[in-house]
Design goal:
CATH topology: Porin
Distance between the termini: 18 Å
Strand content: over 45%
Shape: elongated
Strand order of the largest sheet: 2-3-4-5-6-7-8-11-12-15-16-17-18-19
Low-confidence stretches: 9-14, 16-22
Helix content: under 10%
Number of strands: 19
CATH class: Mainly Beta
Oligomer: single chain
Structural class: mainly beta
Radius of gyration: 25 Å
């Protein structure tokens, strides 16, 4: 088995093992079905988490499905990513640590002919994870309340893209992702009179979700000069509002030990398989980019490339709703926007000079970026703001004569309302991603007339 295929199989098995061990920790995931989306993908995480612009045929963009037809002909790509986020939360009651780690994506994209491309993948949709406690005093006794949440939803999808225009000067591509959304999330609350600890009351609410999911994307690229040194990129992604088929289980117990489910002996209330809908909001993303390469025809200097990209995400979170026979809630969130900017610098893109002693560091893709915006959550009537700075590196596998690469990104940022009395999060994240492509001598999905 070729080395590339061995690495592909090993990466897939490792990621499915880690998927089952995914954890999350954020008090902002207490409401609804958790925080939207997965952790950043390494190849775009260094660019301020820009996700909709397709500017590199050696990367897989699962968010914008129109990108699948823009891959290099005969170069299918397999991508896996792992991310970790480390947070410190501070508030009036003190500070505590949180950690989120998991798989950001498992995807394969295959160009078909000149105009088509397909993709198949699995990625997180929402994640819930928190463990909080609160203590209150009444007369000569005190009560401890514990709040826990866990679980996630995932999206298994297939994508198709078609290039309406594909010539020497312009590219116009459209595409869609059609997916199956599935998973479950649970909120657990317990209350204990400290004099009777660990006995107390426990209630559990679990949402089990399954539904179809669809998103649409478009990409436009155009060279602005004859020498193809300047290129413009435009993109748009639209995800419609969906009503997710859901089941809600609610139970209220008296327990001799609230930390041991085997001690939940007295059932006070129990509602099983309450069928309903969870309305998840629509999302729009628009982006633009520009790359520039200097004219080196009459110079021995290397041909570098500089790219600048910008994007805006809009989500109508006010439309989120939970509608069940015995439970209904609306207006849990506020509408959001997040603006993102990123720069990418490649010291040399002149492949005609690669045999003349070009150092490996000149082939690395250097990325930097940032983002700022509003999150859907509110604290004491004040909406959360988010801000982050990012850097990243893309390491090509030059020795393999392939489009394979290793991508790493780092982020540092904060989430908070700006009010000192409210809960604030400071975080940093580390994201790794590997993209595996066939070497020039390997036969992935290729059909030869002669062998």
């Amino acid at each position: 088995m070729p080395k590339q295929l061995f690495l592909l199989v090993f990466s897939t098995i490792s990621c499915f093992t880690m998927w089952a061990q995914t954890t999350s920790s954020s008090p902002y995931s207490t409401t609804g079905i958790g925080e939207e989306g997965g952790l950043p993908e390494a190849q775009y995480g260094g660019l301020g988490n820009i996700s909709g612009i397709s500017f590199d045929s050696t990367l897989i963009n699962t968010y914008n499905p129109s990108s699948y037809s823009l891959l290099s002909f005969g170069q299918p790509l397999f991508s896996v990513g792992v991310s970790s986020k480390f947070s410190t939360y501070t508030g009036n009651s003190g500070s505590f640590q949180g950690k989120t780690t998991g798989i950001s994506n498992i995807t394969m994209a295959i160009p078909i002919g000149k105009y088509f491309g397909i993709a198949l993948g699995l990625k997180p949709f929402t994640r819930k994870g928190y463990d909080l406690s609160q203590r209150s005093f009444s007369y000569d006794d005190s009560t401890t309340f514990n709040y826990k949440g866990y679980g996630s939803t995932n999206l298994l999808f297939v994508g198709l893209a078609y290039s309406i225009i594909k010539n020497e000067k312009s590219y116009l591509s459209v595409g869609l992702n059609l997916g199956y959304l599935f998973g479950s999330v649970t909120n657990e609350r317990s209350s204990v009179f400290d004099a009777n600890s660990p006995a107390g009351g426990v209630d559990l609410t679990t949402y089990r979700l399954k539904s179809l999911h669809v998103s649409f994307g478009a990409s436009y690229q155009r060279f602005l000069d004859i020498d193809k040194r300047k290129q413009l990129f435009l993109s748009a992604v639209y995800t419609p509002k969906i009503s997710i088929n859901s089941f809600r289980d609610y139970s209220l117990f008296y327990a001799t030990n609230v930390n041991n489910q085997l001690s939940y002996t007295d059932t006070i209330s129990y509602i099983d398989n309450s069928k309903g809908k969870i309305v998840f909001p629509s999302k729009q993303t628009i982006g633009a980019g520009y790359t520039f390469t200097p004219d080196t025809r009459n110079s021995d200097k290397m041909k570098y490339q500089l790219g600048v990209f910008a994007e805006v995400d809009l989500i109508q979170w006010k439309t989120y709703a939970e509608n069940f026979d015995a439970h209904a809630s609306t207006a849990l969130f506020s509408n959001t926007f997040v603006s993102k900017v990123g720069l990418q610098f490649i010291p040399t893109v002149d492949i005609t000079k690669k045999s003349k002693g070009i150092k490996y560091f000149s082939r690395i893709k250097y990325r930097i970026g940032g983002q700022y915006g509003l999150l859907p959550n509110t604290i004491n009537g004040r909406q959360l703001k988010t801000a982050a700075a990012t850097i990243g590196l893309g390491f090509p596998f030059l020795a393999q004569k392939t489009n394979s690469s290793l991508n790493i990104s780092f982020q540092y940022g904060s989430n908070g309302t700006g009010n000192a009395a409210d809960l604030k999060e400071r975080f940093y994240s580390i994201n790794f991603g590997i993209i595996i492509a066939p070497s020039s001598y390997e036969k992935w999905f290729k059909k030869y007339k002669l062998d």
